[in-house]
Description:
Layout: H1 40-51, H2 61-75, H3 79-96, H4 100-124, H5 133-149, H6 171-174, H7 179-184, H8 189-195, H9 216-226, H10 235-255, H11 264-274, H12 277-284, H13 288-301, H14 313-324, H15 334-339
Helix pairs in contact: 1-3, 2-3, 3-4, 3-5, 9-10, 10-11, 10-13, 12-13, 13-14
Pfam family, one: Fungal_trans_2
GO molecular function: DNA-binding transcription activator activity, RNA polymerase II-specific
InterPro entries: Fun_TF (IPR021858), Sterol_Uptake_Regulator (IPR053157)
Amino acid sequence: MSTPGSNDAQSPYSNHYYANGHGTSVVPPVQAPPGTNFTIEDMELLYHYMVSTSTTFSARPFFMETHRQAAMCTAFSDPPVMHSILAITALHRAHLASELPQRRHYVTVAMMHQDMVIRDLRKRVEHITRTNAPGAFIISSFLALFTLGSMHQLDSAGADAATTLNFDNLGNWIRLMRGVPKLLMQDNVLEWVLESPVGAMFRKEKEDWPLPLEFEPRFALLGEVLSDSTLVESLEERTTYVAALKLLKHWTANAHAPDDATDLVGTALVWVNIVEDQYIDYLCADRPGALMLLAQWAVLVNRLEGLWWATGWGKGLMRIILKRLPESWRPFIEEQAREVNAWLSS
Length: 346
């Protein structure tokens, strides 16, 4: 399996993991725990998932259909997966709601289901088996998107509430986004997932697309700044940034592949999930170099603007970065900030 820092590491919720010859077979069912009941409203949410929410995780028909089938096949024998589906769907309904009481209702429903999911996942990851691994993967995948979609001002009556970010601490969301790769790196877990119905989601794709020429100067500047010992004194920190930049450049190139050649959702989100833990530590400490790299990732995420769970993330994240970045560093990301309409002239 690829390591988190490698260029060929794979997306945790796209079809970048692939079977390499593994077949697809049905895993033994997970028995529903006693007292698992679903309401009429839950069934309404399930219908909404089938006809609407499940189409918002990718622009590619193949991935949408295989993801929907794999999730439903697993959910009917693994109730926490069903709760995960209902949680992300209720959150979607909250984003669509035009009235604040309705929005608050769906947020409450989403959080109720998500609480059940988190309780199960905490226990499940302590003892991953062939039987429960596929469900753990789906739950963790939905958790990443739920995290992004829940960081908006959904408790506000403002017209732009569902498109405005509602956090200031980068550590509040980024660690939640990184659960799937760690899960898959446990012994045998990836193999078990690939052998299950979930394995149909994964297929081999080209992942060495060249970076468009117009981005070369930008990445060259990032490289110069992040390797400058007068700006980043620690050799360890510079080394971490150079590795993170190389990875970000790789996935930026893949995200700009020809239409239908790759899954934009997966390629846009993968970097923040697989970049080294040391980089995340620097980011949570508001180190300028780490913030600068995240600004370039914000440009990538901005390409997902049309998806409800990603709306506002590019511009909103860039503005948070600009507030935290020392003034002397801001010119280094002016081009990125202007690209997402987040640059504030002094």
